[in-house]
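To illustrate the input format used throughout this study, we show a single complete record. The first block contains the structure-token representation of the backbone; no residue identities are included at this stage. The design step must infer an amino acid for every position from geometry alone.
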């Protein structure tokens, strides 16, 4: 297979972890006789410094023309002023909108080797395998009007939470399809007791559920779901929810595994369009350049890229198995190591995964 992959290293530890994921993809190409062509683009703070904008037109063009996009992370202390006219996160939102990726898939899987890395008791997290599906291009993050103004001498701010039926339907249908191929259970998360947008979300979800009689569908309010993710995480299969709720719940769920450094994600749009793949962690500027960042979330994001955008399921499974094997053998980066346990660096972890392939 020939494929073009756009790399967006971004800021902080982004370049370090993306470099390791690229090496894994190159190893896969060599092993399975594929030809991957890589292009790099600027995004986030690095793009602001170089061009004055968080997502140059040239970068977006590279992304929409590729078969898939692999992103590192954006942001950092240098660009953290909330009053700044241009911020790194604007590049990420513009990228999602420009690529038309409306569904963010975040798998939360606890490997046996890391059950003791979770802050929860091992018996509570062992066997957890949850797919969180987050609507990505609607809701509060994109609603208008949005902004801050002064009225009668007092500062006021407004954000608009708006959803169209079609936005809800397409992401819920995708979640049902995923549930059908897993354990046939879907949990829809909303705040229908308070929000009109959530009541529409629930109505549309129930309409879509009729098309999937083989999938058990339940509704849970977002505050209850936040509790149940800690109390009984293994009960969940597929969770689907709106943009902000998904953002918060998926970060909460990441702690079930013990580290943000272990969790990949895929952002998908209509069939035939390129997907966007990235670790769910941030740019971690405090450890950038130290060679200690965990590259596994980015490597696992590359595995999702192989499966979902390139249709290479065997190759994706090989990467995931290599990661599991390395962890089972005891290799640990600083974020998942127990006190006194030997630690490996970013490049060394990449070396180990490639060797395990």
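Output of the design step:
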């Amino acid at each position: 297979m020939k494929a073009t992959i756009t790399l967006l290293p971004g800021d902080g530890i982004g370049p370090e972890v993306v470099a390791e994921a690229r090496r894994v993809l190159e190893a896969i190409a060599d092993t399975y006789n594929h030809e991957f062509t890589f292009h790099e683009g600027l995004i986030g703070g690095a793009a602001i410094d170089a061009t004055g904008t968080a997502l140059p037109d040239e970068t977006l063009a590279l992304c929409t023309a590729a078969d898939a996009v692999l992103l590192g992370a954006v942001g950092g202390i240098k660009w953290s002023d909330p009053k700044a006219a241009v911020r790194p996160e604007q590049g990420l939102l513009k990228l999602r909108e420009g690529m038309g990726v409306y569904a963010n898939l975040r798998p939360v899987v606890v490997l046996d080797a890391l059950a003791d890395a979770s802050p929860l008791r091992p018996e509570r997290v062992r066997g957890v395998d949850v797919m969180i599906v987050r609507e990505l291009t609607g809701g509060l993050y994109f609603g208008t009007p949005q902004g801050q103004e002064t009225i009668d001498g007092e500062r006021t701010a407004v954000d608009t939470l708006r959803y169209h039926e079609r936005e809800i339907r397409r992401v819920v249908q995708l979640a049902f399809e995923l549930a059908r191929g897993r354990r046939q259970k879907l949990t829809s998360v909303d705040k229908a007791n308070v929000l009109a947008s959530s009541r529409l979300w629930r109505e549309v979800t129930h309409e879509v559920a009729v098309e999937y009689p083989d999938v058990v569908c339940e509704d849970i309010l977002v505050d209850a779901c936040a509790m149940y993710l800690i109390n009984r995480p293994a009960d969940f299969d597929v969770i689907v929810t709106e943009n902000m709720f998904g953002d918060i719940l998926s970060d909460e769920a990441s702690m079930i595994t013990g580290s943000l450094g272990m969790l990949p994600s895929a952002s998908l749009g209509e069939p035939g369009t390129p997907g966007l793949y990235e670790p769910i962690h941030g740019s971690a500027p405090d450890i950038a350049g130290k060679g200690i960042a965990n590259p596994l979330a980015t490597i696992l994001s590359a595995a999702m890229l192989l499966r979902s955008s390139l249709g290479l399921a065997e190759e994706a499974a090989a990467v995931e198995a290599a990661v599991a094997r390395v962890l089972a053998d005891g290799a640990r980066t600083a974020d998942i190591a127990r006190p006194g346990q030997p630690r490996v660096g970013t490049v060394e972890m990449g070396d180990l995964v490639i060797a395990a392939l």
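Structural context for interpreting the output: The chain has two domains: 1-104+264-357, 137-255. Residues 1-104+264-357 form a domain with the Isopropylmalate Dehydrogenase fold (CATH 3.40.718.10).
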